[in-house]
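In response to the reviewer comment on reproducibility (Comment 2.3), we provide here a single inverse folding case reported in full, input and output, so that an independent group could reproduce the run without further information from us. The structure tokens appear first.
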């Protein structure tokens, strides 16, 4: 009697890419982006890649890692529309003959991020991002079959951007959470407008899947994937940010308070971007221009 194929997963964490932009952080640190985690869910022969990285150099390293696994890559999944989790999908799809998939909402957001490439992404990483057409399609029923096992794209709404999804691999008790859950890295709050309620609901949706392991697409590679810890820490961070936002009058004070509370978290540049965007949102004005001003 033959046994059913066994699934597993591995994670590749890309170091932060060199990042352009104006000025240092309020504490004098140089600007640096966050680590980006890419997940390979695999069976005996085939595999699915989740959240490909940002730059051509990162994609080359991830592609070599996939090739070394010996697995046939069938699909590449983007959990949401932020370019740092899909701009290299077409390059990797071409290398391995894989299909790029995402939820319908994520695909809509991908088009928005592509439209912003020249003024935002290419300004921050000039000459480092390959051509990035939106080639993703929505799989039937938001599901993928990997060697007879079901992998489900679950829509969760707004987290660090609109129209986020997560990939649920029930056989592994695994959720690849994109940017809904962070792991030892400062959360990007810049698109929340200061309302963190929708993000909390997204976390509740992930929790309802009852995972034992969660892969966050921004993570400190020294930390584990324990689902209970990641969910609790993400919720606690949202609470702390909301309290700090209500307490402090300036983005610098907000930044300083969050650094003091979370001295070990990586990604302080994104914290500073979030701080500026949150306080610009208080002033009203065009939200797109406020986000550009916060990043650049």
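Designed residues, in position order:
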């Amino acid at each position: 009697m033959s046994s059913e194929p066994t699934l597993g997963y591995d994670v590749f964490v890309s170091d932060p890419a060199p990042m352009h932009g104006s000025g240092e952080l309020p504490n004098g640190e140089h600007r640096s982006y966050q680590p980006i985690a890419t997940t390979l869910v695999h069976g005996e022969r085939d595999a699915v890649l989740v959240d490909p990285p940002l730059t051509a150099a990162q994609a080359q390293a991830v592609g070599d890692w996939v090739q070394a696994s010996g697995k046939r890559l069938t699909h590449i999944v983007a959990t949401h529309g932020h370019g740092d989790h899909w701009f290299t999908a077409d390059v990797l799809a071409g290398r391995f003959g894989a299909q790029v998939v995402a939820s319908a909402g994520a695909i809509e957001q991908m088009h928005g991020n592509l439209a912003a490439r020249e003024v935002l992404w290419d300004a921050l990483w000039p000459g480092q991002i390959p051509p990035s057409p939106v080639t993703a399609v929505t799989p039937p029923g938001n599901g993928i079959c990997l060697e007879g096992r079901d992998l489900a794209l679950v829509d969760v709404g707004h987290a660090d951007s609109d129209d986020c999804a997560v990939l649920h691999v029930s056989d592994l008790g695994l959720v690849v959470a994109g940017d809904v859950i962070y792991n030892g890295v400062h959360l990007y709050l810049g698109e929340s407008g200061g309302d963190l309620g929708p993000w909390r609901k997204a976390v509740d949706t992930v929790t309802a899947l009852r995972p034992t392991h969660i892969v966050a697409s921004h993570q400190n590679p020294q930390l584990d994937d324990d689902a209970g810890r990641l969910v609790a820490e993400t919720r606690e961070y949202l609470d702390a940010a909301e309290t700090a936002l209500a307490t402090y009058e300036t983005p610098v004070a907000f930044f300083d308070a969050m650094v003091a509370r979370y001295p070990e978290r990586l990604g302080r540049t994104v914290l500073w971007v979030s701080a500026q965007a949150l306080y610009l949102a208080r002033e009203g004005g065009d939200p797109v221009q406020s986000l550009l001003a916060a990043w650049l």
